[in-house]
Design brief:
alpha+beta, Arc Repressor Mutant, subunit A, Alpha-Beta Plaits, four-stranded antiparallel beta sheet, 8 strands, globular
């Protein structure tokens, strides 16, 4: 218990630039999911999940529709997933996931941030092994013990279940995400999933202070401003 769930969320939408970044992020992910698995939500679980999350984050319906319609119209955009593993001050680590139509632009933008924050880029796998790749499903209406019984009855393996302020959170292998949601939904029809993520969680977290903490926060802010950055995970207690 007590994994201290922490994953990068979209920036608070205080500015037009922040909204634009959020909308662009979802438009790319939705387009890619529709292109890969089809444009029908009921037959493409990944697309359905993305659309649900986008609506929760108040992404306009026309942006969601346009992203799906691109696939139906035969538009052929090509996006590539890229991951960068970073070493920050005093043992801090960062994983940056991008979805881009220009890898050279992505890596150039990331390196520009690293140079300004005096952070180093590691080789593939140099940071990822210190993280767990998990899905996280959070909901209300069932305690941890009841949720465990539901998972056992459904034959779904989970890594951990915890409760926090009335919210029950299940951690499991990402391949079990849809089975977990289906099992919960069968017990609580129309349940609202307050957490529905596939993330990288650090096995251990560290604390920074003073100038190092300021530098790390600057790093996160600058990464958030990079167009191609989709998700940022780190091991720093904030």
């Amino acid at each position: 218990m007590g994994r201290a769930y922490e994953v990068r969320k979209a920036s608070i939408q205080k500015t037009g630039a922040a909204k634009s970044k959020l909308y662009s992020m979802y438009a790319r992910e939705i387009y890619q999911a529709a292109k890969t698995g089809g444009t029908e939500l009921e037959s493409n679980a990944s697309l359905k999940r993305l659309v649900e999350r986008a609506k929760k984050e108040q992404v306009p319906s026309d942006i969601i529709k346009r992203a799906i319609d691109k696939v139906n119209s035969g538009a052929d955009e090509s996006y590539t997933s890229a991951r960068y593993e970073l070493f920050g001050p005093s043992g801090s680590t960062v994983i940056v996931d991008c979805l881009t139509d220009n890898v050279n632009r992505s890596v150039s933008s990331i390196r520009a941030v690293l140079n300004k924050c005096h952070v180093k880029m590691g080789a593939i796998g140099s940071v990822a092994y210190m993280y767990e790749h998990l899905c996280i499903v959070g909901f209300k209406g069932m305690d941890a013990e009841q949720a465990l019984e539901v998972m056992i009855d459904a034959g779904v393996d989970v890594d951990d279940i915890e409760e926090n302020n009335g919210l029950t959170v299940i951690y499991a292998d990402p391949t079990n995400l849809f089975e977990i949601k289906e099992a919960i939904n069968n017990k609580i029809p129309n349940v609202e999933f307050e957490m529905d993520e596939i993330v990288m969680l650090p096995k251990e977290k560290i604390t920074l202070a003073g100038e190092e903490l300021d530098t790390f926060k600057k790093l996160l802010t600058m990464l958030d401003d990079v167009e191609d950055v989709q998700h940022v995970y780190h091991n720093v207690e904030l």
